[in-house]
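Suppose a colleague, Dr. K., hands you the sequence of a protein chain of 277 amino acids and asks what its three-dimensional shape might be. Before reaching for any lab equipment, you can write down a predicted structure in token form. Begin with the sequence itself:
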Amino acid sequence: MAALEEFLASQATGDLLPWSAQRAAMARFDLGCAQVEAAALAAGLLPARYQRNRTTISTAGQLKLLRSSVAVVGCGGLGGYAIEQLARLGVGRLVVIDPDRFEEHNLNRQLLSTLAELGRAKVEAAERRVAAINPAVAVTPHRVALDATNGAALLAGVEVVIDALDSIPVRLELSQACASLGLPLVHGAIGGWYGHVATQLPGDRIIDQLYGGAIEPRGVEQELGNPSFTPAVIASLQVAEACKVLLGEGLLLRGRQLHVDLWSMEFVELSPGPPCR
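The predicted structure, expressed as tokens, is then:
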């Protein structure tokens, strides 16, 4: 490791390590991208891709993110944006879960959906996209539907879960799986010009409060649809919450729900109240 650190230091400009130096180190020492990135960050060197993070996230924080693991359940509108942002943020391992393939109606809003990806599995598209963005990030794809029988197994080993689902029953099953594993869950939901975000920590029951009495299996997005911008906004808020959880910094949306109204451009904090009926 000393030889690797010495080489990285010799290739750095100040405390910034360019991608060309990372690739050279990977070839010279026969290491993976994540191994080189971890060694650089541990030595106080910042891979140049993260230089615009430096006033927001410290080098130590960047290393913490690299060593972290997040599950994104649902790889559609919310999930695609969340996966993209987590990869660019430098979260080291992403577990992506979705049983579906891309269809034409996904093209208006799902970041991972392209004409070339039509008919292909969403989780496989996520894996390809992350590899193209940040090869230090490992993706574990599961092309299955999360349910009460497999939730705990699919989420084992992660530190935070992002709810990017569009099914209320599955969302409740996800909440139960997170509760059984003691995992923080960052919830997001969208419909038309509107959306909301909330963070559920172990012991909390905000998902049950929001959806426990729901009759319909799907939310208002079935009536309102979703334009391109709503999932981008809500997913960004979810990733910000996940980042704070991983770093142990900042004030979380715990015990409260942030309602986003993009039509009136209003952000309102609400109490979750009793289960919906």
